[in-house]
Amino acid sequence: MTNAQRIRKAVIPAAGLGTRFLPATKAMPKEMLPVVDKPAIQYVVQEAVDAGLEDVLMITGRNKRALEDHFDRVPNIERLLAQKGDEERLEAVQHATDLGEIHYVRQGDPKGLGHAVLRAKTHVGDEPFAVLLGDDLIDERDELLSTMMDVQQRTGGSVIALIEVEPSKISAYGAVEMEAIEGEDFVRVRRLVEKPPVEEAPSNLAVIGRYVLHQRVFEVLENTPPGRGNEIQLTDALQTLATAEGEGSGVYGVVFSGRRYDTGDKLSYLKAVVTLGCENDELGTDLRSWLKDFVAEQGS
């Protein structure tokens, strides 16, 4: 057990160019792509707020102004909806604005995820913090971030989220070598490898886009040379912490088996939209019925 500082802040890296979604992302941030009736980024901010993290820092880049606009007030739209008596849509518009205290800083040069996290140093200060990547949407009915925060408070180290994947797909992820901890439902991470060849992967446990990090990671990132892709890799910094000693050392993993929606590529994004659409209270019944008919027609 440890007397770790309470976690209050979330960092959301959102400076990527979204090249896999071109031309849709030519003038619109990939984080603003709609997933049913909300942009993907709003699901991520909501997750942070639901976990008690109402101080959110977004790491943005060029052509990301739409992110700031989405979480800002839009008086003319709100006034119009109020005049029409459309309380439901008015509440939905205002909800995005009222989610929490959201700050923004630009990454500048796109030097990788590790560099993006390092840009949060001044805002975060000397306390642990959460990092949420927008490509992974975690179902609001499943606990993950709050569990990771609890593990960080108990261990005083850094915590990553893991999922089991088909061994043949591990090269698309960071992979870990881990060991069980007797009496605990989390594991100790011994080694991290960024996108290993299948035959060299230490396991089929893949790192996904949720982290709860001890502030010592900033010092490590400042001394981490560019790695894979000539970028500063957060994975490399975590590997250093996994084998370090002293305050803030140690990396632990929470294996997640709940509902996760991947919006990182076009096919996965479409699957996420369909899945969440089918579960939507307003649209689900009609969408599921239409899908059955559509699939039947395609098979005939």
Write the layout of secondary structure elements.
Blueprint: E1 9-13, E2 34-35, E3 38-39, H1 40-50, E4 55-60, H2 65-70, H3 75-84, H4 87-97, E5 101-106, H5 113-118, H6 121-124, E6 129-132, E7 136-138, H7 145-155, E8 158-164, E9 174-180, E10 187-194, E11 205-213, H8 216-222, H9 234-242, E12 251-255, E13 260-262, H10 266-278, H11 284-299
Parallel strand pairs: 1-4, 1-6, 4-5, 8-12
Antiparallel strand pairs: 2-3, 6-11, 7-13, 8-11, 9-10, 9-11, 10-12
Helix pairs in contact: 3-4, 8-9, 10-11
Describe, in short, the structure shown.
With 300 residues, the protein is an alpha/beta fold. Helices cover 35% and strands 22% of the residues. The chain contains 11 helices and 13 strands.
**What CATH architecture label of the largest domain applies?**
Alpha-Beta Complex
The sequence of SSEs as H and E is EEEHEHHHEHHEEHEEEEHHEEHH
Q: What kind of sheet is the major sheet?
A: 5 strands, mixed, barrel
Provide the gyration radius in Å. Answer: 20 Å
Quickly name the level 1 CATH class of the largest domain.
Answer: Alpha Beta
Could you name the ranges where pLDDT drops below 50 across 5 or more consecutive residues?
A: none
- DSSP strand count: 13
Structural class: alpha/beta
Strand order in the sheet with the most strands: 8-11-9-10-12
Which band does the percent of strand residues land in? 15-25%
Write down the CATH topology of the largest domain: Spore Coat Polysaccharide Biosynthesis Protein SpsA, Chain A
Average of pLDDT: 90
Globular, elongated, flat, extended or rod-shaped: what is the shape? globular
How far is the first residue's CA from the last residue's CA? Answer: 61 Å
Number of domains: 2
Which superfamily, in CATH terms, is the homologous superfamily of the largest domain?
Answer: Spore Coat Polysaccharide Biosynthesis Protein SpsA, Chain A
Which range best describes the helical content: under 10%, 10-25%, 25-40%, 40-55%, 55-70% or over 70%?
25-40%
Number of helices: 11
Protein name: UTP--glucose-1-phosphate uridylyltransferase
Organism: Psychromicrobium silvestre
Enzyme class: transferase
Domain Nucleotidyl transferase: 9-273
